[in-house]
Amino acid sequence: MKKIFLLFSVLFFTNAFAQKADLINPKGKWYLGAETGVNIINEYAVDQKDVSLQGGVLAEYYIGKQWSLSARLKYFKTGLAFYRPDTHSGSWLDLGSDESFGTFRGAVISMPVDIKWEFRLYKNLRANLKLGVAYNIETKSEYNYSENLSTDYAKQFASLNSGIGLNYFVDEKLAIYADYEYYLLGGYKGSTHFIILNGGYYPQNALLNFGVKYNFKK
Questions:
Q1: Which of 48, 152, 180, 186 is exposed most, by the fewest CB atoms within 10 A?
Q2: How many Cβ atoms from other residues are within 10 Å of residue 134's Cβ?
Q3: What is the reported pTM?
Q4: What are residue 164's DSSP bridge partners?
Q5: Over the chain (218 residues), what is each successive 10-residue block's mean pLDDT?
C-alpha cells in the first residue's frame, strides 16, 4: 500500500515541482470533484483480505486557508468473516458458547462528511489529516451464517472515518489529490462472547483514493 501511494505521488507531483507557481489560498472557495481507487476489506475472511475498486463524487468548501469541510457520495463493497469454536467446559459453572461461524458479503452507498486540516509541504503541495462520520446504506447483504446466529441486522448505519493524504493545487481552480482513509465502527454483524464482556463484529474498510477537483466559479 505504501508503494502504491508513493508511486502515485511521484507521478503526479514531479512535474508540478518543476513549475513556478504562486501560493494558492483556497479560502472561501467551493470545489467539485470525482475520485476512484482501491478498496481493501479487512477481516473479509479469516485468513485473507479482499481488494476491489471503489469510487465517488466530492463537494468541498474551504472555511479557511488550511481548513475545509467536505461531503462525498461513494460506493464500495464491504464484508467480514469469523469463526468461533465451541467453548463449553462441561462443568457446573459453564460460561462457554456454542460453535458458530459467519461470512457477510455486502456493498454500500456511503455519504461521509469530513473536516480536513492541510499543511504546506512545498509551494502548492499540501499534506492533510481528516476526520469525519459517514451515513451508509447497504445495497447488497449476503449472509452465510450458522443456524444458531441471526442475520437480522440494520441496513442503514453510521460509521467513523479518518484519513491522511496529499493535495496539489495546479492553479486556483484545479487540484489533484490522493488520500488513504479507514472506516470503522459501523454495521454491526454479530457479537463476540467473553467470560465477562461482549464485543461485536463490524465490517472495516480501508480506501485509497485518487481524485481531481475543480472550482467552476468564474
A1: 152
A2: 20
A3: 0.82
A4: 129, 180
A5: 52 48 88 97 72 96 97 95 74 66 94 97 96 97 91 94 97 96 88 64 93 92
